[in-house]
Amino acid sequence: MLKLKHFVPALTIGLALTSCGDSESEKKEKTVVETGSDSKESAANEYVLPQPITLANAFKAAGLKYQAGKTNPAAREGNYVIKIDQLMNLGVYSTDLAYCAINSKSQEAREYLAVIQKLGAKVGLESVFSDKGLIAEFDKELGNPEALEELIYEIQEKTDVYMEDNDLKYLGDIQFAGAWIEGMYLGIDNTKEKSEIGKALVEQMSLLKNIIKGFKSHPAQEDARLKEVIALYEGVLNTYESQPSVQKVSKNINLETPELTDAEYQALAKEVKKVRDNIIKPGK
Amino acid sequence: MIFMKKLTAFCLPLVVCFCWIALVSGGNDSALEAQMNTLKQECKELINGTRYEGSKITYFNVGASKQTKNIEVFMFLSNEYQFAISAKKCSVPVSVKVYDSSNDMKERTLIKEFKKVQGKSWKFSSNELNELYLKKKPNSERLKNIHLEYSISSGKESKEGIVLVYGNKS
Fold first, then answer.
1. Start-end of H helices in A103-132
2. What is the pTM of this model?
3. B-contacting residues of A 69-128, CB under 8 Å?
4. pLDDT tier, B12 (very low <50, low <70, confident <90, very high otherwise)
5. Helix axes A83-102, A52-61, angle to 10 degrees
6. What is the Rg, in whole angstroms, of the alpha carbon atoms belonging to chain A?
7. Contact B84/B164 with Cβ under 8 angstroms?
8. How many whole angstroms separate alpha carbon A234 and alpha carbon A217?
9. Which of A145, A180, A267, B18 sits at a 20 to 30 Å CA gap from A199?
10. Inter-chain contact B100–A255, Cβ cutoff 8 Å?
11. Could you report the predicted ipTM of this complex, rounded to two decimals?
12. Which of B51, B58, B78 sits opposite A150 (nearest CB)?
């Protein structure tokens, strides 16, 4: 029989210890920065990243045409052994899937879906991708690009919801970083002749700061590969922000989109290709 | 032997207390998360017919100070975007302001403000935002991103949240 004289001090110690923990987490939550005379603001600025298929659609709307052989070959999937590389390439393949689907390259899209299922299982998203009916449903809609698009949006929604429900948003951010660089890579080669594509590309540069923020929210900040990848993405941002055409306009993309000169585009293209190469061929 | 008995007698209630406290505090968080997920579902239904673009559940502790939370969302397509927000799980006055840039910019334009939205779920669209924005900034094309600012008043301590879901129309 438990004695009350033991229970009371135990309860007191227990409450004291747990309340210490509470106040610590509350301190973090309540870190506030003064911004005005009578209001206080949380230090956290959040963001919602768009879907890779939306980025691909934005490029398509700007006039980007499908170019065979530009996407990352599905056969490389087995080369990605580190989790960060698997996540980044899950993103790369998500963009490739979208790029093929919206350009009516259904067989290629199907191949990428199968690769995404495999990589998804490797990074812990089995429950999202284990649905065997997914490929069957995809096959059923192969001749219908619009239905394929809807299906891709659904898959991305499932992934998003799973990550949010399981506090894995930082994994989603890394996946998105791969999706973004692939989209930029697919778009950048065409910028020479198509000014609208160039504009779409510059608009999508506005995502980069949040992508870097996402990397920096990953718990394994000491990981050598993560550090390397962050430095690469920061290289793209620095190259872009140092361009005179970017510096002379407002940073508000709703008001003005910088028009890069050819030389500036080439500098940006070089950085994007360098990062994309590093992501799809890690260790090379 | 007596020492071991006393130690067990002391430690056992301690363990029971820890388990109970963990269960109660974790349970509260889980209950809130479950409520927020229900509201998220409600938001999705509000913008039924759009393709899911993203969502964000913003949690905060209501306390002695006013606070703001900022969320940036992107609209790269020229299609119509629809936004659904639920502040049903807010006990204190909340307003949502829509700006064209972040709060660290020297100048930004307030596009629309939704006042006293606590206890409500509602939707709005990029079409109305674009219309309002073009009146204020006639040289702009259309909005490519917006910054939502939740202004949360002070009040009795509690953990609460706001849900945002948005999608685009094909």
1. 106-122, 126-129
2. 0.83
3. none
4. low
5. 40
6. 23
7. yes
8. 15
9. A145
10. yes
11. 0.84
12. B51
